[in-house]
Design brief:
Elements lengths: L1 E2 L7 E4 L5 E11 L4 E8 L8 E4 L3 E4 L4 E3 L6 E2 L4 H8 L1 E2 L5 E4 L4 E10 L5 E8 L4 E5 L3 E4 L3 E4 L11 H8 L5 H17 L8 E2 L5 E3 L7 H9 L3 H6 L3
Parallel strand pairs: 2-7, 10-15
Antiparallel strand pairs: 1-11, 2-3, 3-4, 3-9, 4-5, 5-8, 6-7, 10-11, 11-12, 12-13, 14-15, 16-17
Length: about 240
């Protein structure tokens, strides 16, 4: 199983030639099926038209990259009525409000977990008081464009999903590593809203951020995944 935040920012690699063809920008969810329809891809240039990688074209969904058979598996949306229709009928889920069947606002979706077939199995949400709770797919009534409708008793208890349980069963991480993560997160927050003073690219030439461009949370995440965080840290103001 895979969390949505573990997918966003991953590079797409073509098995045929080993080429990096883009980076995952957003996850597109089929609202009726409750599964991933595909991945929106961020290309190497800002002026590229929207591109979509259908979930069915994914060969491997790994920890460090997503693999496809060939570069042409990533499709241009512009000019394709079928793909435009797919996007128009799909939603993002992340960021949507969580509303009960009888109209009580419970919070918002932070992320979700998919199984190997792309089906959403659980959503992680933030309560109005800042607490975190999980919503099993069985308790989701409807995935909407801006609202996810759930059963009324959804927040009676914190329901842990499999990835959380697995994480809890592991021994605690080294305190030094935890300290480094905390420090890096602090630096990340400080960067957001500032501007890059240099063009920063992945090792294969994909542009992460251009000189003068405002640094967003997404850019920081891409830099981390591409092992370019230190370079970004040295080149912003």
């Amino acid at each position: 199983m895979k969390k949505s935040d573990q997918i966003i920012g991953l590079p797409i690699i073509s098995i045929a030639d080993g080429k990096e063809v883009g980076i995952v920008k957003e996850l597109v969810v089929d609202r009726k099926a409750g599964e991933l329809a595909g991945l929106l891809i961020d290309g190497s240039r800002w002026y590229n038209s929207a591109r979509l990688l259908p979930f069915s074209a994914i060969i491997g969904l790994g920890e460090h990259a997503i693999t496809v058979e060939k570069e042409t598996d990533v499709l241009d949306v512009e000019g394709s009525k079928n793909l435009e229709k797919t996007l128009s009928e799909s939603i993002r889920v992340i960021g949507s409000k969580v509303l009960t069947k009888y109209g009580q606002l419970k919070g918002r979706i932070l992320q979700f977990v998919i199984d190997e077939t792309g089906k959403i199995v659980v959503c992680e949400a933030e309560r109005l008081d800042g607490g975190i709770f999980s919503i099993p797919i069985q308790q989701v009534i409807t995935f909407g464009e801006k609202v996810t409708v759930v059963l009324d008793d959804i927040t009676e208890s914190n329901i842990k999903h499999p990835l959380s349980e697995k994480a809890e069963s592991r021994p605690n991480s080294n305190s030094v590593a935890e300290s480094n993560v905390v420090q890096q997160n602090s630096l990340s927050k400080n960067m957001v809203g500032k501007h890059s003073t240099s063009n920063i690219k992945t090792d294969t030439g994909i542009v992460i951020v251009e000189s003068g461009e405002e640094i967003t949370e997404e850019i920081v995440k891409k830099a981390k995944l591409a092992n370019k965080f230190t370079e970004l840290q040295k080149n912003y103001r």
